[in-house]
Amino acid sequence: MTTAPRTPAPLETIEQIKTHLRESPQPVFYLSRSATNLSGLDRWVGGFHYVTLSDSWDGAHPRAFTPRGIPRIEPRGNINIVNWLLGNAEVQEYIARNTPEGFTPQIVLAMFDEASERLCERLGYELIMPSIALRGRIDSKLVTTRLGNEAGVPSVPNLLTRISGWDDLRAQAEEAGLGEQLVIQLAFGDSGRTTYFVSTREDFDGVADHVIGPEIKVMRYINHQPLAAEAVITSAGTVVGPVLREITGHPELTRYRGGWSGSEMYPSLIDDDARGRIGELVERFCGRLAEEGYRGILEVSILRDTDTGEIYLGELNPRISGSSAHSNLTPGDTTLPLFAYHLLEYSGVPFVLDLDGIRAERQRALAGQEWSTLIVQYPGAGVDRIETAARTGRYRVTDDGALAFVAPELDWQGLSGPEDAFWYRAVAEGEICGPGVDIGMLVVRRRAQEDHYALTPFAKGAILAVQAEYRGRRINPLLRYWRAGVRVVRERLGR
Predict the structure, then answer these.
(1) How far is CA 137 from CA 140, 141, 193, 318, 433, in A?
(2) Contact at 8 Å (CB) between 386 and 430?
(3) pLDDT for the residue 2
C-alpha cells in the first residue's frame, strides 16, 4: 500500500519565510544588462544569482557572472541583451553548474519577449514572470483605465475615445467636462514620449498625426504630484511597497520631457491619510489584476491632485521597475525586500501572510528615512568607447562637490548618512556609450528634489561629479554605422 506524499505545512511567519528563502537550494538567475533593480536580493535569497552583460563589481561579487565572449558589436536594447545572454553557451554552463540535481533553474527577467519565453522553454528553464501575452494586454493605458474602473479605482476624469480632428476633440472634451487644458495619451509607450499636452489648435496640430485615428485616452489636466509604488500580487494577498515621488523631466538627467530618471522617499512626502488611501487603491487594483491571472511584481503610478487631495490611478508597469531600488530596502534587516514575496509566490511552497503586520513592520523600518535614486546618463556629445568610469561602491560627497571613493561595496544597504553615496556602475571601461545611455544609478540618503520639483544643489553637484568620472574616445562615425548595420543583420538572422 502506497502512502500519498505529505503536503508541507505552510510558512506562517516572516521568520519562517526568511529561513526558507535563505536555506532553499532552489537557484534563481536574474538576467539583465546590469543588476541595478535587484541588487541586494542575494542577502536574503540563498540561491539568487546575477547574470549580466556588464560586470558592475569587477569580479568581486560571489554570485554574479558575466560571460567573457561578449562581441565588440555587443547587443543593444534590454530585450536583445536578455535573449543574447539566454542563448550564450557560457551563461548556460554557469546556470547548469549552479543548479543542484533535481532542480529546475528559475529565471527572472525585467524586459523580455516571446523569443525569451521560447528560449527558456527550450533550455528547460522556468521563467517565473507573468507571460508576455498577459503583460502586453494589461500594459495598455486604456486597459489599465478600464480595469481600474471595474475595481472602483478612479483615474483622472477622462474619455477613452477616437477623434477625427481638433473640432471633434473639443466637442467630446466639452461634453465630458474635461476643461480647456487636456492631456492625451496613446495606449502604449513611455509617458515622456507618448503623452501630449494640448490646450490650443496649435498644440493639437503638432501631434495630430499621432492622435487622430487610434483609440486614445483624453484626460483633464490637473496639478498633480507624481507618485508610484511597487506591489507583489500573491495567492495570500498583495504586499505593497513604499510610496515614492518620481524624479522626471530634469535636463541634467534625461533628454525627454516627462522622462523618468529616478525616485525619492522622505517622511513629509505624504501624510498618513494619503498613504493609507494609496495603499487601499493599489490593493483594490491588484485584486482586479489577480482576477486576470497576474502574479508577482508590478508598479502602479499614482497621481495626487495637489488642489483637491484626490488620489487617482495613473499607469501600470507590469514588470520589475525603477522603484525596485527603494522597495527592496531592508534597513535594520527587520523586513524582507519586496521582491522576496515574488520569489515566494513562485516557490511552490504554501504560505500565509499577515498583511497588516507586514505593512506595519515596513512602515516602522522606513520611518523617518530619506532615500533617493538618480539614473545618470552619459554626458558626452557623441558615441564613445569608455576609457575611464567610476567604480561601483560607496563614496563620500566632499565640500567642493566631488566624489571621494570610500569602499568597493556590493550594494547600498549600508549607507548610513546624508554625505554618503553609492554609485552602481552600469557601463564600464571598454564599452560603447553615447548620449541618452544610462551609465549607472546614484543612491543617496537625502532628498533629490525641492518641494517645487527642482533638483537640490546637492543632487546637481553629485550628478556632475559622477559624470566627471567618465571619459571616452570618439568612435569613427563610419565605423559606428558599419557596426550598427552588422548588428541589425545579426538580429534579423537571430544570431
Answers:
(1) 6, 10, 20, 10, 33
(2) yes
(3) 47
d(CA 371, CA 379): 24
What does DSSP say about strands 237-240 and 216-220: parallel, antiparallel, or unpaired?
A: unpaired
Cα(414)–Cα(446) distance, integer angstroms: 14
pLDDT digits (tens, 9 = 90+) for 322-359: 899 999 988 777 789 999 999 999 999 999 999 999 99
Which distant-in-sequence residues (6+ apart) come within 8 Å of 26 by Cβ?
A: 47, 103, 106, 347
Q: Treating both helix axes as pointing N-terminal to C-terminal, what angle do 201-211 and 166-176 enclose, rounded to 10 degrees? A: 100
Identify whether the C-beta of residue 408 lies closer than 8 Å to the C-beta of residue 294.
no
DSSP letter assigned to residue 402: -
Q: Helix, strand, coil shares of the chain as percentages rounded to 5? A: 35, 25, 40
Q: What is the pLDDT of residue 190?
A: 67
Task: For residues 392 and 382, give the distance between their C-alpha atoms in angstroms, rounded to a whole number.
Answer: 24
pLDDT for 402: 79
Give dist(CA 446, CA 466) in Å, integer.
17
- Give the list of residues 6+ apart from residue 289 with CB closer than 8 angstroms, or none: 138, 147, 233, 298, 316
- The answer to whether residues 316 and 139 touch, using CB atoms and an 8 Å cutoff, is yes
Contact (CB, 8 A) for 369 and 248: no
Low-confidence stretches of the chain (pLDDT < 50) are 1-4, 480-495
In three-state secondary structure terms, 467 is helix
First to last CA, the chain: 54
Three-point CA angle 190, 290, 353, nearest 5°: 115
Residue 169 and residue 163 in contact, taking contact as beta carbons nearer than 8 Å:
yes
CB 278 within 8 A of CB 227: yes
Identity at 34, one-letter amino acid code? S
CA torsion angle 147 112 73 430 (round to 10): 80
Angle of helix 338-345 versus helix 14-23 axis, rounded to 10: 70
Q: Which residues contact 465 (CB under 8 A, 6 or more apart)?
A: 397, 401, 402, 403
DSSP element (H, E) containing 178 = none
Q: What pLDDT, on a 0 to 100 scale, did the predictor assign at position 392?
A: 95
Cell numbers that stand for 126 in this block: 522556468
pTM of the model: 0.91
Residue 7: per-residue pLDDT:
64
Q: What is the pLDDT of residues 136-185, one digit of tens each?
A: 999 999 999 999 999 999 999 999 999 999 999 999 999 999 999 999 99
Show the beta-strand stretches assigned E in 378-458.
384-388, 393-397, 403-407, 420-425, 432-433, 438-444
How many whole angstroms separate alpha carbon 19 and alpha carbon 354?
A: 17
